[in-house]
């Protein structure tokens, strides 16, 4: 199954892609999303984030190909964030 990625261009400096998380049913599909994020980060030379709906302050995945950084939110970080 392919994952549908919608693109929204808000301004010259803000682009949003959205996906339906229920379409991600395997590690292979998650890896496709991560590869897409890495590709976008590399092309734009910017750090990019995957967040929950309307939650820019709480990134679940952070990718920065220019500095070769990928961070996945841990359970401990999520619990700490949700408590605050």
Please provide a written account of the structure.
This protein has helices at 27-44, 75-83; strands at 6-11, 14-18, 48-51, 59-64, 69-72. It has 84 residues and is an alpha+beta fold. It has one domain. It is globular.
Summary of the model, kept short:
This protein is α+β, with helices and mostly antiparallel strands and 84 residues long. It has one domain. It contains two helices and five strands.
Distance between the termini: 38 Å
Query: Helix share of residues?
Result: 25-40%
Order of helices and strands: EEHEEEH
Basic shape = globular
Integer average pLDDT: 87
Q: Give the strand tally.
A: 5
Which percent range describes the beta-strand content?
Answer: 25-35%
Number of self-contained structural domains: 1
How many individual helices? 2
Low-confidence stretches: none
In quaternary terms, these chains amount to single chain
**Radius of gyration, whole Å:** 13 Å
Strand order of the largest sheet: 3-4-5
Largest sheet properties: 3 strands, antiparallel
Summing up helix and strand content along with how strands pair, one would put the structural category as: alpha+beta
